[in-house]
Amino acid sequence: MTAYDNIVAHERTSWALSQVMGRLGWDQETMMPRGAAEQRGEEMAAMEEVLHARRTDPRLGEWLEAATAPDAKGEAILRHVRRSYTRNTRVPAALAAELARVTSVAQGVWAEARARDDVAHFLPTLTRVIELRREEASALAENGALYDALLNDYEPGISGDEIAAIFARMRTRLVALREKVLGAAYQPAPMKGEFPRERQLRLSRTLAEAFGYDFAKGRLDLAVHPFSSGSGADARITTRVAENDPFNCLYSTIHEVGHACYEQNIDEGYRYSPLGEGVSMGVHESQSRIYENQLGRSRAFTGWLHGQMRHEFGDLGLDPEGFFGAVNRVQPGHIRTESDEVHYNLHIMMRFDLERALISGDLQPGDLEAAWNDRFLRDFGVAVDRPSHGMLQDVHWSIGLFGYFPTYALGNVYAGCLMKALRKDLVGIDTALAEGRPTVATEWLTAKLQRHGGLREPRDTITEACGFEPSEAPLMDYLEAKFSDLYRL
């Protein structure tokens, strides 16, 4: 076997083991007995030790020095393996295992604290997670910014300063749009009523299939915080149900379907390699957000969904245009995952600034709640009424995902670019959406982006799909046009 062949064989096993570890995480969120948290932490730590040993195997370094790629696919594989090897050889195995153990247990602590609205219960664990992530960042940063070292795990090729500049440009237009919308004479009415759990879940399955999700290679379950897990022939989704708010369930499902379809639609020839997964979290989020928002919340698609809702739940008290307004109402609420398209990125910008300060040491964990509440009041004009509506609402920090939050807003930016290109190519897209056939759009996304997996770098992935360099302008143009129309500005 050549050095390249050895790398491919080695990565195949590592990829399979990482999928097994991901399945442990899925089980923890959906079915694991509550009393098993400590044991699961040990299991996750053991898996991480095995994976870390494989990722830092000295033979990998030798093979990388000698390997020659046979083609463009091989060059991309070597690029990913080299990046992973460089990163993991800088992080001590004991630190990697401790991070896996602590964050696994921390997830349960966070869930308990959130249920009890008890910040003090979570703070010692959060402090330990931050200490470990700062230690990891120090090993990776090579005298650069600690936060950038963590950000690189989720969105290679971009810095915190670059993201801050994008967000600054977006903030000006978002705030101006929000003020116009909230001050508009016309305000859409909300949809009210009770919507039984089982019917919501049945309609969720219908929506998942409408967007192209393959249930032969996935499943739909319930979780406190909806997520997607797995890749290739096993890509699972979760949602949650509130019987007085069906949009929470339905649009969480569509969002996670976007993630899962990306994974299901990657070229099968890339499976069991670094190319067999989404290339970055920003690109991943572009798929979930374009499925959920530009397609799922469009006037055309909500017209079809209105009919499906009436079939499932009876009279809604709204005509199709009123239903479109209810789906897209702009309201300054506490919860990021329930926020409208105008406010969503403001939620992300706040978290980005706070977590960047936590990692740099400019903000201490004990001061986070006050900093969050002060910033939220300034940004949204609403006081935080309880911790589960504030710093305890998201799972991310409990599991150490510092650097992850900004990829949500980057995903929106990328989705804006993709929708601009998609509309140029698919002139009749609104007709298909109005007929409940979003697969016309999602098949375009598969061909242009999803099937390529990790073949290209994140920014290049978007550029190749769209035919132009990504920027925030298409997203902001889309938001201003949509909500000016909806609110009759």
From TrEMBL:
InterPro entries attached to this UniProt entry: Peptidase_M32_Taq
Sorted alphabetically, the keyword list is: Carboxypeptidase, Hydrolase, Metal-binding, Metalloprotease, Protease, Zinc
Q: Cite the Pfam families for this sequence.
A: Peptidase_M32
Question: How many cofactors are bound and how?
Answer: Binds 1 zinc ion per subunit.
Entry binding sites for Zn(2+): 255, 259, 285
Gene Ontology MF terms in the entry = metal ion binding; metallocarboxypeptidase activity
Q: What is its EC number?
A: 3.4.17.19
Q: Which reaction does it catalyse?
A: Release of a C-terminal amino acid with broad specificity, except for -Pro
A biological process term (GO) from this entry: proteolysis
PROSITE patterns linked: PEPTIDASE_M32
Which residue positions are annotated as catalytic? 256 (proton donor/acceptor)
What are its cofactors?
Zn(2+)
Which CDD domains is this protein grouped with? M32_Taq
Protein family: Belongs to the peptidase M32 family.
Q: Which PANTHER family match?
A: CARBOXYPEPTIDASE 1, METAL-DEPENDENT CARBOXYPEPTIDASE
Cited function: Broad specificity carboxypetidase that releases amino acids sequentially from the C-terminus, including neutral, aromatic, polar and basic residues.
What protein does this entry describe?
Answer: Metal-dependent carboxypeptidase
